[in-house]
Structures are given as structure tokens and as C-alpha cells.
Amino acid sequence: MQRRHFLWTPPALALGAAASPVLAAPSIISSQSPILPRKGKGPRIVICGGGWGGMTAARYLRELIPNSDVVLLERNATFWSGPMSNKWLVDIVGTDFVNRDMLHPANQYGYTLLQTEVNGFERDKKLVRTAHGLIEYDFLILSGGIRNDYEAWFGNDQRAIEYTRTHFPNAYIPNQEMLSLKQKVKNFKGGTLVMTLPPPPHRCPPSPYERACLIAWHIKKNKIPGKIVILDPKPKIAPIGVGYQQAFEELYADIITHVPNAGVKEVDPFNKQIKTAAGDFKFDDAILMPPHQAADMVWKADLIGKDPATGKPTGWADMHNRLFHAKSDDRVYFVGDLMGAISPQFGHYPKSGHVANYIGKIVAQNIAERVAGKEVVARLPDNLCYMMVNGEPQEEISVKFEYEVDASGQVNQTQIDMDVRTPDLVKEDFDWINGKFRDFLGT
Known about the structure:
This protein is of the alpha/beta class. Helix content is 28%, strand content 28%. The strands form eight sheets. Strands 5-2-1-9-22-21 form a six-stranded mixed β-sheet, covered by helices on one side. The chain has a four-stranded parallel β-sheet with strand order 13-12-11-17. A hairpin with a 2-residue loop joins strand 21 and strand 22. The two termini are 20 Å apart.
């Protein structure tokens, strides 16, 4: 049995009694001890983050570079899918559908999976610092998703941040918040439920509206005397504006109120009050989404971009917009929602599971070309999102994004909204996600 086929935890820090392979590990393990000796003579590629993008990259790197030593670092014990999680909140799909084993694909595709926390990087030495020790790399992929920028609301007030995170979770990062939010929805007995939307760019742009629709369907189905107020910083619903507007008006007119231009100015979680550019609001309960930024690991790697005009951090990875590596370090690649801007025409690629999966494949191909000494080809992704707006009958709308490069070399985006809700799109949605799951989670 090869070492790479296991979820490995250093013996001194083992989380449970499960057997692990015998490795040449130091007798006293600290966060500064080297761990995971190299396997074979191929390149060592370390991937930080085991979501849609990270797991896809791991699978295709092993396929495209058979002698590669691929190590996937993930702090969570299991994989939670953001796509379909809104349906899970209202029991349209079960927990087993969105929560999957990560060891099976590691075994099937032959990469090493280590459950650990990434603490920092020494890029000059090509080292990742983890809670279990130091791991060296030849190439590094950062695929940690997003972080919630509560500091934009509360500064350094940790009491307000933790109170908001605990009492008004948004569950846009896979962790305990997902279970907390599901319990909140089940326990909601009525009153005003406020949802704040982050300003663009943010994770899965159409998904907050889907969440509002499905919670409204839950309220309607169970005859709960409740209302949902969506505080949207944008001037209108986007994307799939017509489809969502019709759902709000035709299905949930007495439940959902959409408030445009409602950028958040101040949040008082203790007194349940929010001040916005569109007015002040009180609430009985809330799902509070602050602005999104690139995951902490990008900040720790000192690879956050800066606005050329102001010099302030953009909040997103500073990367080559066609080849997805860091501008200042071509041994570091970015995959998924933490990526920086792509084009002045549309800004960022949609921060979606579909794009993360696609970019994971592209980055794997790019690294394989470099290892083989070939010219690296700049490739384009696409994007496809399905959103359920009604639970009985089940009906969905969707949006597709296509990309092309113009004569000047700029990437341009074409958006195609499918605004007519239909059960046919529900079938397409499940076919789509089952195909994606097979792609990076294995058979």
C-alpha cells in the first residue's frame, strides 16, 4: 500500500484510533518539523483547500503527471458542497448528498490527503507551514475559497463579530454554520427575517436569492407568519433578474421584500438593527452576510492584489488573469473563489463551484505543460448555475456565462439568463451536479 493512498495524521497528533501508514516522521513533532517525505522523483504539488477546485486539481494532476507527488491539505474532515446547500436547508436533498467522504477520491486518484490547518508560507523556501509541520513543494495551489470580512462592519470589535457569527450565521463557508443555519430555518416561528447580501464580487452571485425563495417556500408551506427582507447593495436583482423578480412577485409577494441600493452602513447585532443606504431596518432574526474576500491563506502568502489607484488591498488574489499563477511568484497558482479580477469588462469570473471545477482542470493542465517543458496554453472556462425558486412543484431558473478573447487580448463575457422557471431545469440541475461529483469525488 502506498503512502499517498491514506488520510495521514502524524502519530503524535492523531485525531483518532484509525490506522495510518508508517512514515519516517520525527520523534517529536512540532509545527516547525518537516513532515511527509517526498514520494518518487516527480514534482511535489501541494494544494491548500479541498473544495470543488482543490479536489479537481488533485485528481487531474495525478492523471496528467503520473509520477507527481500531490498533497491535498484540508482542515475539514469531510467535503461539504456549497452548490445544493440551499436545497439541503429546506430538506429537498439530504445531508448525504452535500456531505461527502474525501478519503475515497484520494484513494481512487492516488493523492495524499492531510487534514490540517494551513498556518503560513515560506515562499522563498517553497514551504507550507501547517499545524502538523512543514511541507515542501515544487508547485503550490491555493484553493481556500473565501473569508467573511466582518471587519468591514465591526473593525476590531471581536465581541460583535463572534456574536454575529454565532447568532446570525450565513453558512457561506463549509463548517458548523451550515448546521446552525439549518436549525435556525427549522426553528423560525415568524416575524421579520432580514438577509444582507455582500457587495460584488461574492460567492455564487445568484445563490442568496435562491436561499430567500426556498426559505419563503418553507414559510409558505408551513403557514409561518413570517416575512423576508432582502437588503441588496446592487441597484437591481442580478444575475437572472427577471426570473427572480417573477418568483418574488408571483410566488412570494406577501413574504419577500427586495430592497435595492441597500448597502450596509452599520450593523447592531445586539439590538437587531441595520442601517443601510436605503434606510434603517429592525429584525426578529437574520442571515447576515458581510463582504467577501479571498481566503486567509492568500493574505498569509502575501499575495493579495492592490488597487493601482489607491494602493489599498483589493481583497483578492494578485494573479495572471489568463494563466492563474501569482504575478510575483509563478510557482503559486490560484483556483476557485479566491481568484482576482479577470477583465475590465466584467471583473471577476463568477465565484461558483462550476468555475472552480473548470479552473482546477486548467491549472492542472498548465502545470503539466510546464513539467513537460511544453508551451503553456491559456484556456478559458465557462459557467453554469441552476437555482431552485419553488419547492412544490419543483421549478428552477438558470444562468450561463460564456467567454472569449477579443482582438486586444481582453476576456469578454456573455451572460445568458434562463428566466422561465420550469421542472425541466431541475432535472438538468441534478444531472449537472451528479456529473461534477463523479468528476472529482470519484465513482
